[in-house]
């Protein structure tokens, strides 16, 4: 995320802070919209599918990167098996 701060000695400090807050808020909104759109293209985790290292899968709350290629099993849910999945921070 790139944020540009322009210093204007004639601009009151409060005004500059409000301008910066607006820039950050807009960029956060853009990032959230992009994440929502990307999430729609990431497959839901389910038992019985083949996954390859680096592939992304999701459950109802999080997105995970596959750490090792494997065929999923019902008791190997991403949140419970860190050797097979790493949760991506959102």
What does this structure look like?
This protein is α+β, with helices and mostly antiparallel strands. It folds into 2 domains: 1-41; 50-88, no CATH class. Helices cover 30% and strands 17% of the residues. The chain is built from 1 helix and 5 strands. The strands form 2 sheets. A 3-stranded antiparallel sheet has the order 2-3-5, with no helix packed on it. It has a two-stranded antiparallel sheet with strand order 1-4. The radius of gyration is 20 Å and the shape is elongated.
Using brief descriptors, characterize the structure shown.
single chain, 90 residues, alpha+beta, 2 domains, three-stranded antiparallel beta sheet, 30% helix, elongated
Helix-strand blueprint:
Elements: H1 13-39, E1 50-51, E2 56-58, E3 63-66, E4 70-71, E5 85-88
Antiparallel strand pairs: 1-4, 2-3, 3-5
Sheet with most strands: 3 strands, antiparallel
Give the uncertain stretches in residue-range form: none
Helix fraction bin: 25-40%
Q: In what range is the share of β-strand residues?
A: 15-25%
Strand order of the largest sheet: 2-3-5
If you average the pLDDT, what whole number results?
Answer: 79
Number of domains: 2
The radius of gyration computed from the alpha-carbon positions, rounded to a whole number of angstroms, is: 20 Å
Query: How many β strands by DSSP?
Result: 5
């Amino acid at each position: 995320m790139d944020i540009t701060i322009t210093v204007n000695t004639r601009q009151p400090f409060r005004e500059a802070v409000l301008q910066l807050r607006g820039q950050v808020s807009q960029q956060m909104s853009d990032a959230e919209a992009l994440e929502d759109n990307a999430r729609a293209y990431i497959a839901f985790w389910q038992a019985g599918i083949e996954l390859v290292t680096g592939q992304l899968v999701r459950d109802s709350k999080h997105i995970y990167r596959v750490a090792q290629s494997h065929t999923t099993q019902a008791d190997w849910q991403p949140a419970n098996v860190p050797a097979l999945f790493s949760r991506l921070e959102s």
